[in-house]
Write a structure and sequence with these properties.
Blueprint (H helix, E strand, L loop, with lengths): L10 E4 L3 E9 L2 E7 L9 H15 L3 H11 L18 H13 L13
Antiparallel strand pairs: 1-2, 2-3
Length: 117
């Protein structure tokens, strides 16, 4: 964090596109002016916190939906509903079955063609 002292009428530059002016100073207040391109969003911290809180509460389901979800599924709304796979990626039993089939000859046999002369 940069901490700097400026007097009324002085400014601070951020990159080449943003300039912050000190317009007035009164007891307990500083009036700033900000010059920036239109695509740069400038929001007061208090307003930004309010918007973030509103967005977070809007993304949560209403209490009655949360209660029904918990009642019927046993899960709350942020928990995953994807169940882990009960079997590993490789199935060791499959290899044993193939070997058993080869040993018993049930798997069929492959005969080589006679060599061409």
């Amino acid at each position: 964090m940069l901490v700097t002292y400026r007097r009324v009428g002085e400014s601070v530059h951020i990159d080449d596109t943003i300039e912050i002016f000190v317009l007035a100073v009164t007891p307990g207040k500083v009036k700033l002016g900000i010059r920036a391109p239109e695509q740069v969003r400038i929001t007061r911290s208090a307003l930004l916190l309010t918007v973030q809180e509103e967005n977070a509460s809007a993304s949560r389901p209403p209490a009655h939906v949360e209660a029904a979800l918990t009642y019927f599924t046993g899960r709350k709304s942020g928990q995953s509903i994807v169940q882990p796979s009960p079997r590993p990626a490789r199935f060791p039993g499959d290899q044993v079955q193939r070997e058993d089939l080869r040993a018993s000859g049930s798997a069929g046999s492959v005969q080589e063609a006679p060599a061409a002369k």
